[in-house]
Specification:
InterPro entries: Peptidase_S1_PA (IPR009003), Peptidase_S1_PA_chymotrypsin (IPR043504), Peptidase_S1A (IPR001314), Trypsin_dom (IPR001254), TRYPSIN_HIS (IPR018114), TRYPSIN_SER (IPR033116). The chain is mainly beta and 244 residues long. The chain is built from 2 helices and 13 strands.
Length: 244
């Protein structure tokens, strides 16, 4: 459990323009996703140690964790889901309001939010992304990583994790292991490309048992479960981006 890309490859500049680095006192701590020019989605557990917005900022528009060439914008407000449970990680999602709007460009774009009734098909190919450890117990990577994963059937994942897995969580990866999110990836997106060509955020990186272990895929906050809560703060948004 806890702050939580194994088996990935380097991402190209502009390929994942919604992925940002969330920084506490200037240091990469978690990932987050741009959902419009003013708002980001991340994981609630990233803020358990320090919920004060004044200590946080985001680095946008760069694939480098060092932030070279990135735009840095302070965070004005951190809104934790009111039902977040730090014990079992249910409703592990937070909304972050930027101090100034992010200037959209080739390297800074929003990802689409699904409707509350959208269904992401099991075995659909999606992507996990982040600057987290490339192996369990390893150090963070400086170059943004991406890995293709499959959405795992809820019953199969329940078999691995038992009743800890709630309907507000979803699993992605491979039951045989090998590709997974890891320490430092928390709060980043699980994104899936739809037939329209647009990329949608299906999950927010939350927790797991180790990184890339056989039988224990990564667990993500199910965005459709928290979509109505998100919509109370966000207006309709444009989105785009490209991966692959």
């Amino acid at each position: 459990m806890g702050s939580r890309v194994v088996g990935g490859e380097d991402a190209r500049q502009g390929e994942l323009p919604w992925q940002v680095s969330l920084r506490l006192h200037g240091r990469h701590t978690c990932g987050a996703s741009i959902v419009n020019e003013r708002w980001l989605v991340s994981a609630a557990h990233c803020f358990e140690s320090d919920p004060s917005p004044s200590n946080w900022a985001v680095s946008l528009g760069s694939v480098l964790r060092s932030g070279m060439g990135a735009m840095v914008i302070p965070i004005q407000r951190v809104i934790i889901h009111p039902a977040f449970n730090g014990t079992n990680m249910d409703h592990d999602v937070a909304l972050l309001e930027l101090a100034v709007p992010a200037p959209m460009s080739y390297t800074i774009q929003s990802v689409c939010l699904p409707s509350a009734v959208h269904h992401f098909l099991k075995n659909a190919e999606c992507y996990i992304t982040g600057w987290g450890s490339m192996r369990e117990g390893g150090s963070l990577t400086n170059l943004l990583q991406k890995a293709a994963v499959r959405i795992i059937d809820q019953a199969d994942c329940q078999h691995s994790y038992g009743n800890v897995l709630t309907p507000n969580m979803m699993c992605a990866g491979y039951m045989e292991g090998g590709r997974d999110t890891c320490l430092g990836d928390s709060g980043g997106p699980l994104t899936c490309r739809q037939l329209s060509g647009q990329w949608f955020i299906a999950g927010v990186t939350s927790w797991g048992h180790g990184c890339g272990r056989t039988g224990f895929p990564g667990v993500y906050t199910r965005v459709t479960s928290v979509r109505k809560w998100i919509s109370t703060y966000l207006c309709k948004q444009k989105c785009g981006g490209q991966v692959g």
